[in-house]
Design brief:
It is a single chain. The chain is an alpha+beta fold. The protein has a single domain, classed as Galactose-binding domain-like (Jelly Rolls, Sandwich). Helix content is 18%, strand content 39%. Strands 1, 2, 3, 4, 5, 6, 7, 8 and 9 form a nine-stranded antiparallel sheet that branches. α1 packs antiparallel against α2. The longest helix has 22 residues. It is elongated, with a radius of gyration of 21 Å.
């Protein structure tokens, strides 16, 4: 009985939770070589995110000695003229958190995210091991991803962001929200009554 109550409470709480979106840099026709690519810019604008700074989406056939964190493509940087970074990531709508997986195949490396409000976060990624870099704060629309150790090759994958707008309460509840909350509270009341009686 307690499990049912807990499950129901979690469902009710999840109704108001913010939505998150993940971009895994999968592109139709991603290339194997830096020479054959162009930097990312607005290729993912329909997903609500744009890029500037030189990073390019490459396919795993580029043989970086580390597989993409997911899928077959990843965001790659090479200091010898191809995607040197830092990478500026701009979101169409304000976000409250950003997470991205990073690594370097040229040794242990430190990575940093800084938002347009000046908040920052860092992570140390061991050689060829993916590390998750996460930044959370008040609403921001842009982050800068940078590599701090001067490595010639570094990679990023699985960019995830959470909308800030979805976390701010609406001044007037929507009818479907009221209906779902009413149903949830009614079920909780019914279960509590059965539990006592």
């Amino acid at each position: 009985m307690r499990v049912k109550l807990l499950l129901l409470l979690l469902i009710v709480l999840a109704i108001g939770a913010g939505w998150a979106e993940t971009l895994s840099f999968e592109m139709v026709g991603a290339k194997c070589l830096f020479l054959d690519t162009t930097p990312l810019n607005n290729q993912f604008a329909l997903d609500g995110v744009t890029f500037s700074g030189g990073g390019t989406a490459l396919n795993r056939c580029a043989n970086f000695a580390v597989a993409p964190h997911s899928g077959t493509d990843l965001l790659a940087f090479h200091i010898f003229g191809y995607g040197t970074g830092p990478e500026v990531i701009t979101f169409a709508d304000p976000v409250s958190s950003v997470s991205i997986w990073v690594t370097s195949t040229a040794g242990d490396d430190t990575f940093r995210l800084i938002d347009n409000n000046g908040l920052s976060a860092s992570v140390l990624a061991l050689n060829s091991v993916w590390a998750q870099l996460t930044l959370m704060g008040p609403a921001f629309t842009q982050v800068t991803l940078s590599e701090q150790g001067g490595k010639y090759l570094w990679l990023a994958d699985d960019l995830t962001w959470t909308s800030a707008a979805s976390e701010q309460p609406s001044p007037v509840p929507e009818p479907n929200m009221l209906a779902l909350m009413g149903t949830g509270f009614g079920l909780i009341g019914t279960m509590a009554k059965r539990f006592r009686g």
